[in-house]
Amino acid sequence: MSVIGGAAVWLDRPHHDGSALYVEGRRHRLGDRVAVRLRVPRGWGETEVKLWVMHDGDPLRLPTRVAAEDGAERWYQATLPVDNPEVRYRWLVGRADGYHWVTARGLFDRDVAALGDFLLTVYEPPPAWADDAIAYQIFPDRFARSGRVDVEPPGWARPAAWDDRPARGGDAAVRQWFGGDLFALAERADYLADLGVSLVYLTPFFPARSTHRYDSSTFDRVDPLLGGDQALIELSAELHRRGIRLIGDLTINHTGAAHEWFRRAQAARRGETAPNDEQGFYYWPENSPLDLGIWQQALDAQWRAPARPGVEPMADPPPEYVSWLGVPSLPKLNWNSQALVRRMIAGPDSVVGRYLRPPFDLDGWRVDVAHMTGRFASDDLYQMVARTIRQTVDSVKPDALVIGEHFFDVSRDLPGDGWHAIMNYAAFLKPAWSWLADPALDPSIWFLDVPLPVPRRTGGKVVATMREFGSAAAWPQAAHAWNMLDSHDTSRITTIGGGPEMAEVGTAWLLTYPGIPAVFAGGEGGARGVTGEEGRVTMPWDQIAAGGGERWDGGAAAAVGELIGLRRRHVALRRGGLRWAFVADDALGYLRESDGERILVALARAPWEGVVIPRLDARPASSLYRPRHAAALSLTASPEGLRIGGEGPAIGVWRL
C-alpha cells in the first residue's frame, strides 16, 4: 500500500473477488473443479503463491501457475475442488518479508481467522435477472391515489391530506392514513419505467390496523383500502407489461393481534371453541422457558431509555403471549407448529406460494425481520424457515427472488440455501451514513439500531467496515445484497447528509457499487425525514409534473435518473468485481471491472488533497457522469498515473 497525497493507494496489492474475472462459472456443483485467479501487481515481490482451501475441515495447499502477465501485473491460477457444499478458501503469498494472506477482508501480513475467507457454495445463485436489477421501494399508502377505492376508512385510521407532513413517531404515525392505493400505482407505471427501475418492492399489502401493515389481520386477501385483490392483479400486469418485476413484503416472525389466527387461538384458550391448530402458532407462558413478565420488563427498559419514536408503550401487566420485542400488538409466531409451516410457507397453496402464482404473479418476497424469525429462547428454527421458503419459491416460481431483512452480521445466517440475499444495512447503509453524515446532524437521530448519534468516520474505517461485513457471505449473496441509502425504517439520506450535495454523492455510490441498488420512493426527489415514520412522505405529483417545487428537487431526480441509466448501460457496474483504488479520510475510489470494461469511481465528501493512482496507464475517456448538486472531480493523465483533483463534495465516474 502506498500513501500519496494523504490517500492510501490500494492498487499495488494482490486482489481476488468472486466476480467472473476471478472465479470460473456462475453455478457450481459438488465435485466440480473451478478455476480461480489471483491478480498480483508487478514489483510486489511475491516468491510463491498457493491456494489454501478448507477440505473436510483440513486445509489443502494447492499449487498455482501464471496464467497471464503483462507489464503491469501477473494472474496466478489454481484449481479449486468443490468437495464440500460450502468451500472456504484464501490465498497464501510468500515474499521476502514473510508470508501474506489474501482474504475477502483484504491483505494481511499476520494470521487471521477463517471468518473472512472467500466462500464458494453449491447453492443455486439468485435468478439471473437479479444481476441487472435496480429496485424501487414503495410504501403503498403514500405513493398515489386513484379515486377508484370507495371504502370507508376503518376506525383506527386518522385521514390526512395528501400534502400533510407524516408524523415523526408515536401513535399518530401508525394511524395516519393518506389513502394511497394499488390502482394508482398501476396508473403510474410509466413513471417507474421512465425512471429506469426494473424491480418494485411493495411494503405489506395485507389488511391490518395500521398504515404500515406489519400487523396483518389476514393473509388471505389484499387490503380493501388498497383496492383489494383486483388492484394487486392489475398492478402486477401493468408492471410486467413494462418489463418491471414486483415483490411483496411478508411478515413471518409475527402477525397482528387482530389476525384471524390469533383470535381463533385466543378463543380456544378461553374455552370458547374447541382446541384448534392456531393455538400452536404462537408462544404462550406455558410453552416458554422464560418468565415473560421479567422478559418484557427487560425489553421495556430498552425502548424507554431513551424512548424510541414510533414504538407503542409496553403493556404493564405480565403478557399472555410472546410478542415482537414485547410490543403487544405483534404476537410472535411459533415455528415448531407443522400446521403453521404448511399454511404459511410450505408448498404452492401456502401464503408464500399462492401470491407467486397467477393471477397475482409476484416475482418474490422481501421477508420482514428475517433475522429474528424462528428464534426465541432455546428455539432456533431460523434456517428451517428460510430453507422451506426457498424450497417453495424454487418449486412454484424458480426465477423468483427472496430478500431477507437483516440488520446485523450474516456470517451464521446466509449460506445461500435460504434467502438469496439480504437488505444490506450492515455492509452498506450504516457505513455509508457514517461517511456521508453532516457534521452538524441533529444528535437526537439514532444510528439505526444504535441508540446514539450517527458517527462521522474516516474513509479507512468505513471501507474496513464494508469489507468486514461484506466478507461474511459468498459472492453471489454479496453481489445481490439489497443496498440502500434509506428505507421506510430510517431517516432520509438528504437529512443525514445535510443537503442535496451529499445525497447525490451517496446516490452515485449506491448506483455504482456491487449489489441491487434500491431507491425508496421520493428519495429521487430529495425527500427528507428525521425518523423512518416521518420519511414516509407522499409523492407530490403536481410538482413532479412541473419539474420541481418545495417538495421536489428536480435536479436530484434528474441525477438519479441519469445514474440509473449509467448503471443500465455498463455491464461492469452491474456485474463487475470491486477493487478499491484509494482510500482517504474524505475521499474514496474503486474500480468496477468486467471482461473488456473498467470503470473508475471516485467520491469526495469534502475538499481534500487529491491523489495520483499509479498502474492505470490507460488514458481515461470522457467522464460518464456530470453531477447536478455536487462538484465534478477532475481527472488528468500524467507519467506517474492518473491524477484525481481535490474537489469536494464531488463525484467522478470514468471509463478507462
Overall description:
- By secondary structure, the protein is α/β, with parallel strands linked by helices.
- It has 4 domains: 28-121, Immunoglobulin-like, CATH 2.60.40; 128-254 and 335-571, TIM Barrel, CATH 3.20.20.80; 260-326, no CATH class; 578-655, Immunoglobulin-like (Sandwich).
- It is 24% helix and 24% strand.
- The protein has 17 helices and 33 strands.
- Strands 21-20-17-16-15-12-25-24 form an 8-stranded parallel sheet.
- Residues 305-311 have low confidence and may be disordered.
Count of structural domains: 4
The CATH topology of the largest domain corresponds to TIM Barrel
| CATH architecture assignment name of the largest domain | Alpha-Beta Barrel
End-to-end distance:
22 Å
Q: Give me the oligomer status.
A: single chain
The CATH superfamily label of the largest domain reads: Glycosidases
Strand and helix layout:
Blueprint: E1 2-4, E2 7-9, E3 33-41, E4 46-55, E5 58-63, E6 65-69, E7 73-81, E8 86-95, E9 98-103, E10 106-108, E11 118-121, E12 135-138, E13 158-159, H1 170-175, E14 176-177, H2 182-187, H3 189-195, E15 199-202, H4 228-241, E16 245-251, H5 260-269, H6 292-304, H7 338-344, H8 351-354, E17 364-368, E18 375-376, E19 379-380, H9 382-396, E20 401-404, E21 421-422, H10 425-436, E22 446-447, E23 450-453, H11 459-470, H12 475-478, E24 482-484, H13 493-497, H14 500-512, E25 516-520, H15 541-546, H16 554-569, H17 571-575, E26 577-583, E27 587-594, E28 597-604, E29 611-613, E30 631-632, E31 635-638, E32 641-644, E33 650-655
Parallel strand pairs: 12-15, 12-25, 13-14, 15-16, 16-17, 17-20, 20-21, 24-25, 30-33
Antiparallel strand pairs: 1-2, 2-26, 3-7, 4-5, 4-8, 6-7, 8-9, 8-11, 9-10, 18-19, 22-23, 26-27, 27-28, 28-33, 29-32, 31-32
Helix pairs in contact: 10-11, 14-16
